[in-house]
Amino acid sequence: MKAAVITFPGSNCDRDLSVALAQAGADVTRVWHKDEALPAGTDLVAVPGGFSFGDYLRCGAIAAHSPIANAIRAHGAKGGYVLGICNGFQVLTELGLLPGALMRNSGLKFVCREVALQVATAASPFTSGFAAGEVIRVPVAHHDGNYQIDAEGLTALKAEDRVAFTYAPGINGAVEDIAGVLSSNRRVLGMMPHPERAAEPAHGGTDGAKLFAALVQELAKV
């Protein structure tokens, strides 16, 4: 499985994400935001956490207009796999690949700690390594992780089983404590928590490694 990990000015989790994917068995290529095309044969585009372009305007808004943005959007639109973590989730909403928006945390404070996540669905390439309802522990580090979506959009997410993870309990005011959502074809995942920071024993936990292992295994079947 070939993965392309995007780096923007201000990304700070791109290497961690690359290492987590490589340890799971992916062939990883690093891609700079000024590139206009993805490497040939890319299966997965991974958009990392950080503070792209200093989070000016809106988190992810400037990154969504980088030269590489059109290639990411096109990859997702044609059915390619895309993973956005933290700032990457924000970028994917700005690109229109996922619904909703990430707002300032309730309480207006940066949240940086390990949290409990409940796996809302196991029916996706990203979550198939978990059991629905399973509680895992993964770090978060965000100031704008308060996921919001209108009532119609929320109804669609729930009806189509597209909520991937929820906080247990809530930490940032997100509607129904949503921590991650899937696209309608289930090939795009955006999540605020950082599984790449819980991918090996030295991190203090390995629950995040299951996501990358399941994803690589699922894509190997395609």
Automatic annotation (TrEMBL):
- State what protein this is by name: Phosphoribosylformylglycinamidine synthase subunit PurQ
Task: Output the InterPro entries linked to this UniProt entry.
Answer: Class_I_gatase-like, PRibForGlyAmidine_synth_PurQ
Could you tell me which pathway this protein works in?
A: Purine metabolism; IMP biosynthesis via de novo pathway; 5-amino-1-(5-phospho-D-ribosyl)imidazole from N(2)-formyl-N(1)-(5-phospho-D-ribosyl)glycinamide: step 1/2
* Catalysed reactions, as listed in the record: L-glutamine + H2O = L-glutamate + NH4(+); N(2)-formyl-N(1)-(5-phospho-beta-D-ribosyl)glycinamide + L-glutamine + ATP + H2O = 2-formamido-N(1)-(5-O-phospho-beta-D-ribosyl)acetamidine + L-glutamate + ADP + phosphate + H(+)
Catalytic activity, EC: 6.3.5.3, 3.5.1.2
Keyword list (alphabetical) reads:
ATP-binding, Cytoplasm, Glutamine amidotransferase, Hydrolase, Ligase, Nucleotide-binding, Purine biosynthesis
Coarse class of the primary localization is: cytoplasm
What's this chain's function?
Part of the phosphoribosylformylglycinamidine synthase complex involved in the purines biosynthetic pathway. Catalyzes the ATP-dependent conversion of formylglycinamide ribonucleotide (FGAR) and glutamine to yield formylglycinamidine ribonucleotide (FGAM) and glutamate. The FGAM synthase complex is composed of three subunits. PurQ produces an ammonia molecule by converting glutamine to glutamate. PurL transfers the ammonia molecule to FGAR to form FGAM in an ATP-dependent manner.
Q: State the organism of origin.
A: Paracoccus broussonetiae
Q: How does it assemble?
A: Part of the FGAM synthase complex composed of 1 PurL, 1 PurQ and 2 PurS subunits.
- Enzyme active site: C86, H194, E196
Question: Where does it reside?
Answer: Cytoplasm
